[in-house]
Amino acid sequence: METENTGRGADPDGPRVLTRRSVASAAAVALALAAAVASKALSDGDPAADADSAAFADFYADSANGAEPSAEETATAAGGGEESAEASTAAAEPDGESPSETGESEAAQTVSALPGTGVYRARQEASGLCMTWGDEPGGDGRSVMVLGDCGSTEPELTWVEDGDRYAVEMAFEDWTPCMTADDGGTEDGKLVGFDGCDGLAAQTWELVPVGDAYQLRTAASGTLCLSVLKSAAAESGDAVALQDCDAGDAKQRWTLL
Known about the structure:
- By secondary structure, this protein is of the alpha+beta class.
- The protein has four helices and 13 strands.
- Strands 1-5-6-9-10 form a five-stranded antiparallel sheet, with no helix packed on it.
- Helix 1 runs antiparallel to helix 2 and helix 2 (about 45-65) packs antiparallel against helix 3.
- The model is unreliable at about 1-25, about 75-95 and about 95-110 (pLDDT under 50).
């Protein structure tokens, strides 16, 4: 039985005794709060929220009546808050790729992005050597594109971008010709020399991304790429030549430095 402690001289440090009026007031407030939470959940039509609201109602009702809520009720009430926070976080996240997926996409675009106009050395993946110019193997003194040490390549090669195609200018001291495939660049095994820049298809090259490198495909055929002669081992002095494009051939993969 509950009694009222109305004496003015009551010990302030002694046990507190709730009056019926205070219990009733606390219960009314708690039940009103629980009803509001439950009403909001029902209006939203969320079954999970309904369960959480019921748990909160029981929790607050027990508290208002002076009873200790059970461990299960306390955990459920707390868990509802965590689930609501997770739902809010999920709703706040925009649709689309996750940050990691976005990073991977950006990386892929970076690898496949074509370079702008500039001076680059073209290094062959198979040999680690770069394109330069030298004597035609077994020729009559004509100069052609060959493999050589990347530290001493000459002349500078200026790759002039035109959309997804390039002309490769060769800056000699008194002349700036363009890298040109022999005989129109339509047959495999043809060497690559240089001639006056006229915008010919045999002077136009497409960069085809392959991993972190490129195939250099002649616009004259669309199926022939820069490599070396089939009989060559990709060593210094070997002539650069056209071969049927094969992305799996390291002799056809070039990195622009």
